[in-house]
């Protein structure tokens, strides 16, 4: 028997099987939902002469779209980080599937892909156990189990033991694979060894499973490991690096889910008596069905956080201050004792430090991706929503076209948008400022940073203001739609009076939705003549993500130039272990959205290319010479802080504007550069 669940090697069968043993097929609807993941599959095959190894299988009841219980045969596999189901079973169940492209690589670099996922509910036949899981669809999961039928009539299995799979000894199709997410949760106390030469019976919530070896004429067994790496900090750095390097024109076609999210926003978004937006969470799955218990895990994480805070007085003081302000502003309120909604979700939280911020050094982040006992989180069942603002590259380019410019920031933008009262049950948190106080549940009353649709909901409200008020504030409405990156405004005009007027108009427009601008900067003080000194900033730092940058782009309005700030605390040191992983991390922290440092950064890319040619793994330590070469390179970035690049790229009162593009290549790299040439009346 070749039990190779993901490499799909061919095995000869005496006859083809065209449908599941459990019933006929049904068609299902198809909703595109693009998500990219990477899955690694390491497989090893071992042959045993005259021994057959039984893998743990169970027959469970899967709930169809009509509520009908359909039996299917599941393989329990602790070596898989993913759950799998056959496409034919999903069709039979009539369950909706979603596009989720998952490349899977196996031993010997063999590859296959899972293109869809589906959320399924299954129940034990022998207990009250029930679970909701996300499964990856495959045309085939495994070869038939068992690979050959064995006579077990002489096996002395006690009558009071209820087998999870009564036909474990017969060769049948595998319809589903339950991975490590559930594997160990399924096992219960209880083990029975039939005899020394026979498999062991182990008690689970699905019944007693049979696992182990028994005599057979000829057999082979197979074990496998499937890993699905999460978006670790390195993954985010890789993604950030290549997103920054790519300036392709974005595809504006909405997916079906994005369209549904837009329609949901239009249907349910309202204004309250104070003129504030009230939105609803855009669910794509029914939370009553999909969410399990979250109280226990959230409580454990809060107690762990509390223990950490108690060891750092300054951190605890800042955390308490943040939460006290949160409550004082009415953005969170305590739940009355005994009033926990029947269907709810408790969000764990932690803090991130932002030392470069002029206002809030500490920010509390809410983790709505924390799994419940069903294996699903709040973010798993929410729509993310489409991007409704231009990308940062486009905004900064436009920012360079105006002679007089200003920037500003919407203060606490997400928290100016209220969440409907019925949805606040899905934004509960634990909090107390002192350990001797009772642990209190609070509800978050506004759009919360850390929930999947937060950015969409907040920025979509800005777009709605612009659309609704464009008759009265036309210039400001265009600026809000075209010159905002999340909560940052970068706009301008060709003379001081127009810039000043535009700023005031934007302020007035945003006030209609209870959004307030702060942190003003301008390259001419007359633009900000009505702004208090407390609300002004001296420098503007451009951000694209939460990743702390080694090298970042800033704008100095006093000189009206772009500069690069260097953070030497984030670079690798010669006394630390330099690996391919740390090299990529250093490179990805170089934030250059306009490509101004292309000739410098390409040297780092070529160095990384050398490491790939050496077939080094991510964590192989670099030879001392190469490590020193990398340190010498990265330390030179401090010299870039002396570089001043004019922000304004035109001549005042230009008559003509031309674009001149150049490109060239060498054996190692290629590049291009586009210049803008403007000619005024004096030529």
What's the structural blueprint in terms of helices and strands?
Layout: E1 30-31, E2 39-48, E3 51-54, E4 57-63, E5 69-76, E6 84-86, H1 87-93, E7 97-105, E8 111-123, E9 130-138, E10 176-178, H2 180-186, E11 187-193, E12 200-204, E13 207-215, E14 219-227, H3 233-245, H4 256-268, E15 270-271, E16 277-279, H5 287-290, H6 295-310, H7 313-328, E17 332-334, E18 349-353, E19 362-366, H8 392-399, E20 404-410, E21 418-419, E22 428-431, E23 440-444, H9 454-468, H10 474-482, E24 484-485, E25 488-493, H11 496-511, E26 517-522, E27 540-541, E28 551-556, E29 561-566, H12 580-588, H13 598-613, H14 624-635, E30 645-646, E31 656-665, E32 670-679
Parallel strand pairs: 1-7, 2-7, 5-10, 6-9, 16-21
Antiparallel strand pairs: 2-14, 3-13, 4-5, 4-8, 6-10, 7-8, 8-9, 11-12, 12-13, 15-16, 17-23, 18-19, 20-25, 20-26, 22-23, 24-25, 27-28, 28-29, 29-30, 31-32
Helix pairs in contact: 3-12, 9-10, 10-11, 12-13
């Amino acid at each position: 028997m070749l039990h190779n669940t993901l490499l799909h090697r061919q095995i000869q069968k005496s006859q083809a099987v065209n449908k599941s043993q459990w019933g006929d097929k049904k068609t299902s609807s198809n909703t595109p939902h693009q998500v990219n993941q990477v899955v690694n599959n390491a497989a090893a095959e071992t042959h045993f002469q005259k021994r057959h190894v039984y893998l743990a299988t169970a027959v469970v009841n899967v709930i169809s779209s009509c509520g009908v219980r359909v039996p299917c045969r599941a393989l329990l596999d602790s070596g898989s980080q993913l759950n799998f189901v056959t496409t034919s079973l999903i069709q039979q169940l009539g369950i909706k599937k979603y596009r989720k492209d998952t490349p899977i690589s196996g031993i010997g670099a063999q590859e296959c892909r899972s293109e869809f996922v589906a959320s399924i509910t299954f129940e034990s036949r022998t207990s009250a156990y029930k679970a909701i899981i996300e499964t990856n669809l495959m045309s085939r999961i495994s070869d038939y189990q068992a690979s050959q039928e064995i006579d077990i009539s002489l096996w002395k299995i006690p009558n009071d033991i209820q087998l999870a799979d009564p036909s474990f000894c017969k060769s049948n199709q595998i319809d589903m694979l339950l991975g490590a997410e559930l594997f160990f949760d399924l096992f219960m106390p209880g083990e029975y060894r039939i005899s020394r030469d026979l498999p062991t019976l182990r008690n689970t919530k699905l019944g007693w499973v049979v696992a182990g070896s028994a005599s057979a004429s000829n057999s082979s067994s197979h074990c496998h490991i499937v890993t699905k790496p999460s978006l670790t900090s390195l993954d985010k750095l890789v993604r950030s690096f290549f997103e920054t390097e790519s300036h392709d024109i974005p595809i504006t076609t909405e997916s079906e889910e994005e369209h549904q999210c837009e329609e949901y926003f239009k249907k349910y978004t309202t204004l309250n008596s104070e003129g504030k937006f009230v939105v609803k969470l855009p669910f794509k799955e029914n939370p009553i069905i999909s969410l399990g218990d979250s109280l226990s895990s959230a409580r454990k994480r809060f107690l762990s956080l509390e223990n950490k805070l108690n060891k750092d007085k300054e951190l605890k003081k800042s955390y308490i201050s943040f939460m006290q302000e949160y409550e004082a502003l009415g953005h969170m309120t305590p739940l009355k004792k005994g009033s926990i909604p029947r269907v709810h979700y408790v969000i764990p939280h932690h803090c991130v430090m932002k030392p470069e911020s002029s206002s809030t050094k500490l920010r509390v982040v809410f983790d709505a991706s924390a799994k419940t006992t069903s294996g699903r989180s709040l973010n798993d069942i929410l729509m993310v929503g489409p991007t409704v603002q231009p990308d940062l590259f486009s905004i900064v380019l436009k920012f360079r076209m105006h002679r007089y410019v200003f920037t500003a920031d919407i203060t606490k933008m997400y928290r100016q948008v209220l969440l409907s009262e019925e949805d606040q049950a899905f934004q509960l948190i634990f909090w107390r400022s002192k350990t001797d106080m009772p642990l209190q549940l609070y509800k978050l009353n506004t759009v919360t940073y850390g929930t999947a649709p937060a950015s969409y909901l907040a920025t979509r409200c800005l777009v709605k203001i612009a659309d609704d008020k464009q008759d009265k504030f036309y210039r400001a409405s265009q600026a809000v739609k075209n010159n905002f990156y999340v909560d940052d405004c970068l706009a301008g005009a060709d003379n001081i009076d127009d810039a000043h007027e535009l700023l005031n108009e934007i302020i007035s427009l945003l006030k209609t939705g209870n959004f307030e601008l702060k942190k003003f900067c301008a390259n001419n003080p007359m633009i900000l003549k009505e702004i208090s000194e407390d609300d002004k900033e001296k420098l503007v730092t451009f951000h694209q993500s939460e990743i702390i940058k080694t090298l970042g782009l800033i704008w100095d309005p006093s000189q009206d130039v772009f500069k690069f700030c260097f953070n030497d605390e984030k670079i690798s040191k010669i006394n630390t272990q330099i690996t391919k992983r740390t090299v990529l991390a250093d490179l990805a922290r170089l934030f250059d959205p306009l490509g101004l440092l292309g000739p410098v950064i390409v040297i780092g890319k070529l160095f990384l290319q050398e490491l790939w040619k050496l077939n080094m793994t991510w964590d192989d330590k670099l030879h001392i010479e190469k490590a020193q070469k990398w340190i010498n390179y990265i330390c030179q970035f401090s010299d870039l802080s002396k570089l001043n690049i004019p922000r304004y790229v035109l001549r005042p009162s230009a008559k003509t504007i031309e674009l001149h593009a150049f490109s060239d290549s060498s054996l190692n790299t290629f590049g291009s550069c586009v210049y803008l040439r403007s000619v005024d009346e004096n030529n």
